[in-house]
């Protein structure tokens, strides 16, 4: 790319001369999309960015009743008094745990400051230091661990400078961004870079949708803003990928489109109020799509439905593939949780599912996720031991199954509400082993047909092989967690030409 730019300069030099080259090249490289300097923008934004420091209360001093006694004037007496406290007190001096991060003001009148939850987590005192080094204590209005966002409030007569949120959705890979924060506690620091990638999932939470940037982000930048060239906050710097602990050009920011609704809820309610559908979902693989008659892998496959949850009440069933929710197309599984979460509670949502080789429209009244969590609706079962029983071997998929009995339910801690056939053994290097099936899993359905005994499984698998299908779809219950697994069918060797 660099050679291409230099070549174009040479063409300009031949056609318009040195003066034209200077002017045209400057206009080409330093337009609104390619700023010659960030100085004006940084000067405008720096006063709105703050340093966050938080501390936890010190534990009670640890006493040492058996401290050795030394003669007056002994050098050991001075040593122990310096590091252990005066004689008889025996206390080690403790430094309160502290955390440093960044933040930014979004409301100058009310003093609202945004930062990351992990910056102020478990803190007893939170302080905000402004660009002019004035420091104020801050009140924690609310926080959200799922998106790692916290809202603080500062009470002061000081005239504050605030910044506003922009829309992160139009961001494209290659767009300029500016990051301001407090790396390593140094104070207001400005770095610039580009958007390196969008919609990154780094397994930080259920709604991961990070903006990746090569703008230098280090420890202490957490909670600081990422700006576009209009001076709008389009991200909250949150994490870095680094084997050394320092910036290696891979930083991650929460997009404003995800952060802003969460912040508004916290300010209004003191907590989040997310929509809830009441389903457990999983990705649709190519094999699962083929088993269900879908044209391609898309949507979110419903593995189980919470009893008396919104989905159950509306008629959504395990095995349905949710293709769209309230007008939003669900191209991949992880799109659904965020879409549902941002839907107003108690509103009616239009859901399109794939069931029985056709689309079906369903109306759902959205519930509240936080209430479901408080009620313990989302709890899962505990670990279960293994048991040994002779079973029926299902060769095409490489597993052995057995009928559930009262003793086996007790051995594996399987609820009486769970019906199906128990997996007794997984053949080594089989398709079942590659897909992560384990002894103790319960097969609830095969190809969306309920099974209650090994003969049911044998008949359905044999039928699939006879019809020359490449895979079969299993609904598996593991310790209360239900999911679909598509297994490729091993073809039999027909040595006799059958």
Please give a structural write-up.
- The chain is of the alpha+beta class and 498 residues long.
- It folds into five domains: 1-30, no CATH class; 39-58 and 95-272, Thrombin, subunit H, CATH 2.40.10.120; 60-92, no CATH class; 276-374, Roll (Pdz3 Domain), CATH 2.30.42.10; 392-488, Roll (Pdz3 Domain), CATH 2.30.42.10.
- Helices cover 22% and strands 31% of the residues.
- It is built from twelve helices and 27 strands.
- The protein has helices at residues 2-29, 39-45, 75-84, 117-120, 256-269, 286-292, 310-314, 335-341, 369-374, 406-412, 431-434, 454-466, and strands at 49-55, 98-107, 112-115, 125-129, 135-144, 149-154, 176-181, 189-200, 210-213, 225-227, 233-240, 251-255, 275-276, 279-283, 300-305, 321-325, 328-329, 348-355, 358-365, 367-368, 392-394, 399-403, 421-426, 442-446, 449-450, 471-478, 481-488.
- Strands 21, 22, 23, 24, 25, 26 and 27 form a seven-stranded antiparallel sheet that branches. It has a six-stranded antiparallel beta barrel with strand order 1-2-3-6-5-4.
- A hairpin with a 2-residue loop joins β16 (321-325) and β17.
- The longest helix is centred in the first third of the chain and has 28 residues, at 2-29.
- The radius of gyration is 30 Å and the shape is elongated.
- The termini are far apart.
What structural category characterises the helix and strand content? alpha+beta
Average pLDDT, all residues: 82
Number of domains: 5
The appropriate CATH architecture of the largest domain is Beta Barrel
How many H/I helical runs? 12
Strand element count? 27
Shape: elongated
């Amino acid at each position: 790319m660099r050679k291409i730019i230099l070549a174009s300069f040479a063409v300009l030099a031949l056609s318009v001369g040195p003066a034209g080259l200077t002017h045209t090249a400057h206009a080409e490289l330093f337009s609104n999309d390619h700023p010659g300097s960030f100085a004006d923008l940084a000067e405008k934004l720096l006063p709105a960015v703050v340093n966050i420091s938080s501390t936890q209360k010190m534990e009670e001093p640890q006493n040492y009743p058996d401290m050795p006694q030394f003669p007056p004037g002994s050098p050991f007496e001075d040593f122990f008094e310096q590091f252990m406290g005066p004689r008889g007190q025996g206390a080690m001096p403790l430094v309160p745990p502290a955390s440093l991060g960044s933040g930014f003001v979004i409301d100058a009148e009310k003093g609202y400051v945004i930062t990351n939850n992990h910056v102020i987590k478990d803190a007893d005192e939170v302080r905000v230091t402004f660009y002019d080094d004035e420091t104020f204590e801050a009140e924690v209005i609310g926080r959200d661990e799922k998106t790692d966002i916290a809202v603080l409030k500062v009470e002061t007569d000081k005239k504050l400078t605030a910044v506003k949120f922009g829309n992160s959705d139009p961001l494209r890979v290659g767009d300029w961004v500016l990051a301001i924060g407090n790396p390593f506690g140094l104070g207001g620091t400005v770095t610039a870079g580009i958007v390196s990638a969008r919609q990154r999932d780094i397994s930080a939470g259920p709604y991961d949708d990070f903006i990746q940037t090569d703008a230098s982000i280090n420890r202490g930048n957490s909670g600081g803003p990422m700006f576009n060239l209009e001076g709008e906050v389009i991200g909250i710097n949150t994490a870095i990928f680094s084997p050394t602990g320092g910036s290696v050009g891979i930083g991650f920011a929460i997009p404003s489109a995800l952060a802003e609704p969460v912040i508004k809820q916290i300010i209004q309610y003191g907590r989040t109020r997310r929509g809830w559908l009441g389903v457990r979902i999983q990705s649709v693989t190519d094999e699962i799509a083929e088993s269900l008659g879908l044209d391609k892998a898309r949507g979110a496959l419903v593995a189980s439905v919470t009893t008396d949850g919104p989905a159950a009440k509306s008629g959504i069933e395990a095995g349905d593939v949710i293709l769209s929710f309230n007008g939003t197309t669900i191209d991949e599984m992880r799109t659904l949780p965020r879409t549902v979460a941002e839907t107003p509670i108690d509103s009616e949502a239009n859901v399109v599912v794939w069931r029985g080789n056709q689309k079906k429209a369903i109306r759902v009244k959205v519930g509240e996720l936080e209430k479901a969590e408080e009620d313990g609706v989302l709890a899962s079962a505990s670990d279960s031991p293994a048991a040994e029983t002779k079973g029926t071997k299902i060769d095409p998929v490489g597993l052995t199954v057995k009928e559930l009995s009262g003793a086996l339910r007790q051995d594996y801690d399987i609820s009486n509400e769970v019906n199906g056939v128990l997996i007794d053994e997984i053949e080594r290097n089989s398709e079942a082993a590659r897909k992560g099936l384990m002894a103790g899993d319960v097969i609830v359905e095969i190809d969306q047909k309920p099974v209650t005994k090994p003969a049911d499984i044998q008949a359905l698998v044999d039928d699939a092989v006879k019809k020359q299908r490449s895979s079969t779809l299993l609904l598996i219950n593991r310790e209360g967690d239900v999911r679909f697994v598509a297994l490729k069918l091993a073809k039999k060797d027909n040595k006799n030409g059958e």
